[in-house]
């Protein structure tokens, strides 16, 4: 069994009056464990890592690890386009007790494939936890090609990938190049999670799991048991909600939905602005259809 599998929530960071709401974050972790979430992924894109201070980033990971207390694993967001900073966040996550690290491909700098390899190798060589490569060319502009991932997979602690390319041929190609049985393929897109699992994935780092953790966990459980008809039927029901989470810039949708559940405020940090009334109404209606509220 892979350490990270099933429904891994891309955890929101709750704010209140401009500050991290630590009490709400503690409640979120407990709620996810009770709801069947398989792993926690704090301080990533959905956790608004770009607008967390260094101290806040460290504290969020520390608090999540502390509350989880190894009941479910924690994959800490530790990525940066500056490898020195990425190593720093990794060391902080190690000290906090995280079980793995999520590292995004170097955005904005636009490195070539050799540069991407060198970035991840530096982080690998200077840290001790399993590293998951986050490939999201839509945000990072750069794309970790299958050949580069295969080269990275020769490093013992490059443990897997979070794939948000939307290219469902990608895992087939990568699996033809990477022969490690312990390498973990995780979808980074809720809408394509079932299709990705058919291609060899073992889980999804999910935004929708912030508000429908039981349902996303069940989708992944069906996939793990090769119950594809059931997985497809449940995924069909979730598709509207998946889409609404990204109708406006994320995580505004997830936070508004979480506020309807009484989990936290809908507060995001600029440049993410509040949702339009029409999107709020659509999210509320979709949650009612799924009997989440």
From TrEMBL:
<dbReference type="InterPro" id="IPR005263">
    <property type="entry name" value="DapA"/>
</dbReference>
<comment type="similarity">
    <text>Belongs to the DapA family.</text>
</comment>
<keyword id="KW-0457">Lysine biosynthesis</keyword>
<comment type="pathway">
    <text>Amino-acid biosynthesis; L-lysine biosynthesis via DAP pathway; (S)-tetrahydrodipicolinate from L-aspartate: step 3/4.</text>
</comment>
<feature type="site" description="Part of a proton relay during catalysis">
    <location>
        <position position="45"/>
    </location>
</feature>
<comment type="function">
    <text>Catalyzes the condensation of (S)-aspartate-beta-semialdehyde [(S)-ASA] and pyruvate to 4-hydroxy-tetrahydrodipicolinate (HTPA).</text>
</comment>
<feature type="site" description="Part of a proton relay during catalysis">
    <location>
        <position position="108"/>
    </location>
</feature>
<dbReference type="GO" id="GO:0005829">
    <property type="term" value="C:cytosol"/>
</dbReference>
<keyword id="KW-0220">Diaminopimelate biosynthesis</keyword>
<protein>
    <recommendedName>
        <fullName>4-hydroxy-tetrahydrodipicolinate synthase</fullName>
        <ecNumber>4.3.3.7</ecNumber>
    </recommendedName>
</protein>
<feature type="active site" description="Schiff-base intermediate with substrate">
    <location>
        <position position="162"/>
    </location>
</feature>
<feature type="binding site">
    <location>
        <position position="205"/>
    </location>
    <ligand>
        <name>pyruvate</name>
    </ligand>
</feature>
<dbReference type="GO" id="GO:0008840">
    <property type="term" value="F:4-hydroxy-tetrahydrodipicolinate synthase activity"/>
</dbReference>
<comment type="subunit">
    <text>Homotetramer; dimer of dimers.</text>
</comment>
<keyword id="KW-0963">Cytoplasm</keyword>
<dbReference type="Pfam" id="PF00701">
    <property type="entry name" value="DHDPS"/>
</dbReference>
<dbReference type="GO" id="GO:0009089">
    <property type="term" value="P:lysine biosynthetic process via diaminopimelate"/>
</dbReference>
<feature type="active site" description="Proton donor/acceptor">
    <location>
        <position position="134"/>
    </location>
</feature>
<keyword id="KW-0704">Schiff base</keyword>
<dbReference type="InterPro" id="IPR013785">
    <property type="entry name" value="Aldolase_TIM"/>
</dbReference>
<feature type="binding site">
    <location>
        <position position="46"/>
    </location>
    <ligand>
        <name>pyruvate</name>
    </ligand>
</feature>
<dbReference type="InterPro" id="IPR020625">
    <property type="entry name" value="Schiff_base-form_aldolases_AS"/>
</dbReference>
<dbReference type="InterPro" id="IPR020624">
    <property type="entry name" value="Schiff_base-form_aldolases_CS"/>
</dbReference>
<keyword id="KW-0028">Amino-acid biosynthesis</keyword>
<dbReference type="InterPro" id="IPR002220">
    <property type="entry name" value="DapA-like"/>
</dbReference>
<keyword id="KW-0456">Lyase</keyword>
<dbReference type="GO" id="GO:0019877">
    <property type="term" value="P:diaminopimelate biosynthetic process"/>
</dbReference>
